[in-house]
Amino acid sequence: MKKNDVIVIGSGISGLLSALALSREGKKVVILEKESYIGGVCRSYDVNGYRVDTGPHIITRLENGPLKELMDRYFKIVPEFIPSGKYYVKIGSEIKPFPWSINAWLTFGLLPMTDRLLLMRALFNILYLKNAGKDFSSITLSQILPNKVSITTRRFLDWLCYFMVGTSIENAPISRFVDNKTHHPRTVPYVGKLYDLFIKEGATDQGYPKGGLQSIVSSIVESFPKDRVEIKTNVAVKRIECGERVEGVVTTDDSYDCDTVVYSGFSSDLPHLIDSLPVAYTKNLTSIKRVNSLTIWLGLTKKIFNNYGSEMWVDSDPYAWVIPTSNYDPTLAPKGNQLVGFAFTLPGEYDASTIKKKAFQTIVDNIPDIETHIDMIHYQELIPEKASWGINCGFGDVKTPIKNLYCVGTDTTKRSAGVNRSAYSVLEFLDIMKSDGNL
Ligand SMILES: Cc1cc2nc3c(=O)[nH]c(=O)nc-3n(C[C@H](O)[C@H](O)[C@H](O)COP(=O)(O)OP(=O)(O)OC[C@H]3O[C@@H](n4cnc5c(N)ncnc54)[C@H](O)[C@@H]3O)c2cc1C
Predict the structure, then answer these.
(1) Which atom of ligand 1 is nearest to the CA of 385?
(2) Is the CB of 265 within 6 Å of ligand 1?
(3) 31 C-beta closer than 6 A to ligand 1
(4) Alpha carbon separation from 383 to 288, 343, 368 (Å, rounded)
(5) What is the CB-side half-sphere exposure of residue 273 using CA atoms within 13 A?
(6) Which CATH class for the 4-38+208-287+393-435 domain?
């Protein structure tokens, strides 16, 4: 049997980016994907004339983030990103742009003035202590929250925690919001943060990929060098064969020898694929907590959402993030219609049919006449991040105890979120491959 250079398990964005980087660095790569499609939770498909994504997405850090770095290094074809516009906060029937700067925060009338001042004081304290070297990775946001803040302010912060960290305010570490771990660290982080606080007018380097998420996947595949990457779908890896080093993989009805395996499935599933992992390593994997989400896509016969950007619904239950994707690219919906994605955060345990009804009711409660304009409705239950970044939650790692077995994906590195977290994991993986002498 011919020995492959690299087997990549899984064709989500982290598997595809790894395959692209390795093939452009001269390796021959085989991707094995258990589903009938590639892209994992970063793809698009058609439903009754609408092109829906796997959940509403805004891609962040397009000017200097890890995805940008990988695009610069390895993409032959780069997707076109449309500016994502503003984030609007909706509380009750009022809606206002997200307050990015101190100036905007001071005039942000959706939250009580006393709360805003208390939070500003708390934030300056944190930044001061952080600059003095205090570690905020095991202190939660709720631990430093002044007792007096209103329920609305608490919900506003809780919303941010769920969507940025995948967990509640009681479990989200402050470090997630104040650490400045870029791939190219700033030299004066404290001054940098303060500069952002005073000057920033909003996120200017975020975008939506024209044509939908699928265009990112297509750009990667079209950038593969000729004859260097083979993709096999409907192939589930059942075992990773290894002694001290990785030897190959076994699928439902085949086996492959290889030098290197890059695993991009759930790190917590690794112990089911390999017998010989040390207990100290697997113990940490058992405390990983996945993030659950529900998306409801609505195709509307009329344009109901007129703001350019997305909406954060702070007092809906469950919390919602709403993106009318056809405002970015009208070709995603039939002419004259609107396509809107409503992403909801879900608890660890939930009953799917109850939560779907509750989430749909939230939409109707917020936009009472919406029901008469619904042309298409589509539900998705997806896992946006394989690990929530909460206190006491386990995390996987890019490097494993087995030589030449590496992991990538959103449960392998504590940096950023979503697609950029996947991209960070791939950059880390490439660095480790180099230091191991494999690249
Ligand atoms: C509702 C929602 C909203 C989101 N919003 C944003 C956003 O605004 N911005 C952003 O950046 N990100 C966002 N994300 C997150 C982002 O899409 C994901 O973090 C990212 O796509 C995860 O990629 P991944 O490669 O780590 O994992 P996955 O996409 O889960 O890929 C893993 C792949 O491995 C395959 N696999 C697993 N085990 C095996 C096996 N044994 N054999 C073969 N194949 C296997 C799986 O089938 C899958 O295809 C959102 C996600 C959702 C669901």
Answers:
(1) 19
(2) yes
(3) no
(4) 13, 12, 29
(5) 26
(6) alpha beta
CA of 158 to the centre of ligand 1 (A): 23
pLDDT tens per residue across span 322-367: 999 999 999 999 999 999 999 999 877 889 999 999 999 999 999 9
Answer whether 42's CB lies under 8 Å from 10's CB.
Answer: no
194: tokens are 């303060």
* DSSP track, 11-62: -BHHHHHHHHHHHHTT--EEEE-SSSSSBTTS-EEEETTEEEESS---B--T
- CB of 409 closer than 6 angstroms to any ligand 1 atom: yes
Is 420 a pocket residue for ligand 1 (Cβ < 6 Å)?
yes
Residue 187 reports pLDDT greater than 60:
no
Strand-pair partners of 294? 344, 381
Distance between CA atoms of residues 408 and 412, nearest Å: 6
Q: Is 57 in the pocket of ligand 1 (CB under 6 A)?
A: yes
**How do residues 45-61 score in pLDDT, each as one tens digit?**
999 999 999 999 999 99
Q: Kindly state the average pLDDT of the residues 111-116.
A: 96
Question: How far is Cα 220 from Cα 19, in angstroms, rounded to an integer?
Answer: 9
Q: Report the pLDDT value the prediction gives residue 348, as an integer from 0 to 100.
A: 77
Task: Judge if the beta carbon of residue 12 lies within 6 A of ligand 1.
Answer: yes
Domain range annotation of the chain = 4-38+208-287+393-435, 99-199
Between the CA of 19 and the centroid of ligand 1 the distance, in Å, is 15
Sequential DSSP letters for 243-300: SSBEEEEEESS-EEEEEEEEE-S-GGGHHHH-S---HHHHHHHHT----EEEEEEEEE
The pTM assigned to this predicted structure is 0.95
Quote the mean pLDDT of the chain: 92
The residues near 357 (Cβ < 8 Å, ≥ 6 apart) are: none
Structure tokens at 159: 């919303």
Q: Quick check: 57 and 297 in contact, CB under 8 A?
A: no
* Chain segment 188-213, per-residue pLDDT in tens: 455 555 566 666 667 789 999 999 99
Kindly give the pairing relationship between strand 4-9 and strand 29-32. Answer: parallel
**How far is Cα 284 from Cα 381, in angstroms, rounded to an integer?**
26
Amino acid, single-letter form, for residue 267: S
Q: Where are the beta strands (DSSP E) in 347-385?
A: 374-382
Q: 183 falls in which pLDDT band (50, 70, 90)?
A: very low
Query: How far away, in angstroms, is 112 Cα from ligand 1 center?
Result: 38
User: 58 CB less than 6 Å from ligand 1?
Assistant: yes
